[in-house]
Amino acid sequence: MSMIFALLICLSIQQIIVTEAYDEKYSLDDDIPEKFYVTHEAWFNISVRENKISEPIKTKQIVIGLFGEICPMTVTNFATITKGLRRGSEKYTYKGTPIHRIVRDFVIQTGDFTNGDGTGGKSIYGDKFIDENYILSHRSPGWVSMANYGKDTNGAQWFVTLVPARWLDGHHVAFGRVISGMDFVYELGEMETFRGTSIPKKYIVIDDCGLNDITKYELTYAQLGSYDDLVSSS
Questions:
Q1: Which residue in 40, 49, 100, 101 is the catalytic one?
Q2: In the structure, what pLDDT confidence band is assigned to residue 35 with cuts at 50, 70 and 90?
Q3: Quick one: pLDDT at residue 233?
Q4: Rounded to two decimals, what is the model's pTM?
Q5: Active-site option among 172, 175, 219, 230
Q6: Is 101 a catalytic residue?
Q7: Catalytic site residue 106?
Q8: Is 104 a catalytic residue?
Q9: Domain of life here (predicted)?
Q10: Cβ partners under 8 Å of residue 55, min gap 6
């Protein structure tokens, strides 16, 4: 039973209360770069269904910019699983993986490609790998970060913030940012869950995913504080 909750991000009433004070204390430091380089773009076609075998009610795409120069190890893990990897009989892919957790006004979480319920998932480096760094801050909605169950326990699960969540800084490794599809991210964050749980009532699944062929480009610190898309969807 403990594993069911192991990868859930801990959020207490006390943490909510101190959020504003935390944000004020950890405002922009002098050593934070003015520009951030997106080295990869990962896209995810996500559908909402009544149940696992029903036809999609809707399908939309989100695109995530990845900061491979800041978090090369974490981005390599994420990008490799997004593209798909086979090792013998094992297949590492986010395709077919459900969004298993929704916490309104906090996060949506996915990435458990082995069990689909938050108890599994593994990295390309082994069952788990280290917290690479905490350079990027969960300072606005749309940040993509590794789920874990303690220090240096990253696997394959990841979440997207729905609100500024800087109390996660220093505990979870942020490595990407949603650059298009934020309207759908917010919509998913409003989906109903079973009473007393964070399990969505509808079946929400990554139907397909992959990497865009891009040339590295810059995003500014100001852009990354946006609550909306950073680039127009085409």
A1: 101
A2: confident
A3: 56
A4: 0.88
A5: 172
A6: yes
A7: yes
A8: no
A9: Eukaryota
A10: 49
> What CATH number is given to the structural domain containing 57?
2.40.100.10
Answer left, alpha or beta for residue 118, where phi above 0 means left and psi between -120 and 50 means alpha: left
| C-alpha to C-alpha distance for 78 and 122, rounded to whole angstroms | 11
Q: Which of 77, 109, 154, 157 is catalytic?
A: 109
Q: Which residues pair with 59 in a beta bridge?
A: 47
The rounded mean pLDDT for the chain is: 89
Catalytic-residue membership of 14: no
Asked if residue 131 belongs to a domain, the reply is yes
Tell me how many degrees the CA angle 141-212-232 measures, rounded to the nearest 5.
50
- Whether 144 is covered by a domain: the verdict is yes
Mean pLDDT calculated for residue range 201-219: 98
Span 105-131, pLDDT tens digits: 999 999 999 999 999 999 999 999 999
Residue of 106, 113, 175, 184 marked catalytic: 106
Amino acid at 82: T
The answer to whether 182 touches 76, Cβ cutoff 8 Å, is no
Check if 77 is active-site: no
Instruction: Please tell me the total count of domains within the chain.
Output: 1
Domain, as residue range, for 202: 34-224
1-10, 34-43, 82-91, 171-180: segment of lowest average pLDDT: 1-10
Q: Supply the pLDDT for residue 231.
A: 84
157 tagged catalytic:
no
Tell whether 7 is covered by a domain.
no
